[in-house]
Amino acid sequence: MPSSIKGGAGEWQVLKALISELDNKHVLDLRCGFGWHCRYAREQETGKVIGVDISDKMLQVARGKTHGPQISYMRMPIEDIEIENDQLM
User: What Pfam families does the record point to (predicted)?
Assistant: First the structure.
């Protein structure tokens, strides 16, 4: 889909307004796809960002487009995720 390649779906402007203050917050992106929102969150000076998706192919692309240790990706169904506080620190 074009939104996955270029980033930002049709609802992006509304979502962006809702998450406008990310300074030093930790972000969990469920169904992160190609990692577009993860990278956007990191650009906003977040703390750590974790992206979760079930698709190995999507995560391979996300990892290839991501630079730096502040963003990590996990492959699993979102209903199975368990994040401990120390994973966000």
Answer: Methyltransf_25
